């Protein structure tokens, strides 16, 4: 029998966090013209509809999606809305949003956006019931690590993507939003991406741009109205036996706030016979043993305000980003292990330029 020194064993089990990788910028392909759809992504709307979102440079492109269940055949059609926004000197392209459906569960649909010359995309709807597979990743950014993460996700055959904030890391540099949309399109056009905002989506600059979340709200429209929310920053949806709540760490969350009241009402409406699993997504973690992002009001303030609501509703899991690490707690309530509390998971190591939490 071999004998090993205890310190040698300890050394072999240590984990050296890899350093950040270089940032990337994905330009518009030369194969696309001004009316070609770019930055295509899809999101769920209700239990049997999907929102198709894309951007064009040409202002005359119709917000129309044609779709069907066979390649090259698109017998169904739906029209939507087109918007755009300004951010200081930046002018966005035409942002198109079209809701299609009703759709069958666990079915592949083929679709084209806008003119008949559009390339054909396809997506698969989630199954009607269990099993269902989610990909969950926060703080994606645009680096070589992001590319590695997306490649890993693409091989997982997931049904729905959940992203707890910090998408593009544009940080007021609006062309980076366009780059991010192109970077994730191979996945986001293929499966629904359900996202919530993080601190890097705020993008408010005193005097120059006083409105928060301008780019995020314009580009990543989520189904907030369907859940009774009045804000794109928090909402809920149901899929395949799960009720999923996407909360906003960077909008009012205190008792009496619109988000607090909405959450209380949303939790009261849940039918655990229909959706036995209850998942919550936030950006700033309520429980965190890393030195990074300690003492932030978005974490301890939101926890103080809403932890009782989640505990009393018997939430199963709370996912968070913000801290660039992976961490999983046992079931917790009021800073103590509690078999009736949620499991808290931090998954903020998607690949952003700031690198991983190191202590």
Automatic annotation (TrEMBL):
Q: Which InterPro entries does the annotation name?
A: Calcineurin-like_PHP (IPR004843), Metallo-depent_PP-like (IPR029052), MPP_PAP (IPR041792), PAPs-like (IPR039331), PAPs_N (IPR015914), Purple_acid_Pase-like_N (IPR008963)
Q: Does the keyword Chaperone apply?
A: no
Ranges for domain Calcineurin-like phosphoesterase come to: 132-326
Q: Which cofactor does it need?
A: Fe cation
Q: What is its EC number?
A: 3.1.3.2
Keywords assigned by UniProt, alphabetized:
Glycoprotein, Hydrolase, Signal, Zinc
Highest taxon of source? Eukaryota
Reaction(s) this enzyme catalyzes, per UniProt = a phosphate monoester + H2O = an alcohol + phosphate
- Species for this entry: Solanum tuberosum
The yes or no answer to whether the keyword Signal is present is yes
Q: Where is this region: Disordered?
A: 1-32
**In which family does this protein belong, per the annotation?**
Belongs to the metallophosphoesterase superfamily. Purple acid phosphatase family.
Name the record gives this protein: Purple acid phosphatase
Q: What is the lineage of its organism?
A: Eukaryota, Viridiplantae, Streptophyta, Embryophyta, Tracheophyta
**Purple acid phosphatase N-terminal domain residues:** 37-125
């Amino acid at each position: 029998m071999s004998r090993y020194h205890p310190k040698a064993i300890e050394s072999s089990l240590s984990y050296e966090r890899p350093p950040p990788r270089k940032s990337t910028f994905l330009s518009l392909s030369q194969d696309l013209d001004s009316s070609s759809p770019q930055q295509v992504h899809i999101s769920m709307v209700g239990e049997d509809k999907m929102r198709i979102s894309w951007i064009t440079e040409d202002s005359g492109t119709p917000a129309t999606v044609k779709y069907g269940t066979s390649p090259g055949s698109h017998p169904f059609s739906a029209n939507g809305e087109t918007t755009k926004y300004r951010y200081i000197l930046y002018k966005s392209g035409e942002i198109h949003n079209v809701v299609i459906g009703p759709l069958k569960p666990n079915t592949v649909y083929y679709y084209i956006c806008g003119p008949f010359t559009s390339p054909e995309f396809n997506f698969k709807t989630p199954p009607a019931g269990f099993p269902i597979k989610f990909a969950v990743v926060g703080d994606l950014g645009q680096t070589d690590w992001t590319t590695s993460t997306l490649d890993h996700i693409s091989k997982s055959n997931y049904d729905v993507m959940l992203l707890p904030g910090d998408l593009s890391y544009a940080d007021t540099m609006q062309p980076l939003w366009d780059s991010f949309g192109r970077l994730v399109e191979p996945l986001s056009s293929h499966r629904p991406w359900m996202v919530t905002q993080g601190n890097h989506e705020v993008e408010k600059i005193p005097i120059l741009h006083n409105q928060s979340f301008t780019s995020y709200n314009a580009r990543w429209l989520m189904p907030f109205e369907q859940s009774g929310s009045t804000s794109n920053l928090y909402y809920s949806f149901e899929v395949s036996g799960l009720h999923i709540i996407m909360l906003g760490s960077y909008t009012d969350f205190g008792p009496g706030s619109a988000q607090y009241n909405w959450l209380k009402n949303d939790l009261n409406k849940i039918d655990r016979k229909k959706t036995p699993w209850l998942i919550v997504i936030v950006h700033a973690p309520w429980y965190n043993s890393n030195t990074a992002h300690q003492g932030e009001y978005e974490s301890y303030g939101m926890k103080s305000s809403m932890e009782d609501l989640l505990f009393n509703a018997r939430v199963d899991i709370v996912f968070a980003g913000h801290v660039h690490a992976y961490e999983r707690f046992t079931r917790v309530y009021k800073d103590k292990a509690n078999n009736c509390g949620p499991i808290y998971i931090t998954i903020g190591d998607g690949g952003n330029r700031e690198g991983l939490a190191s202590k």
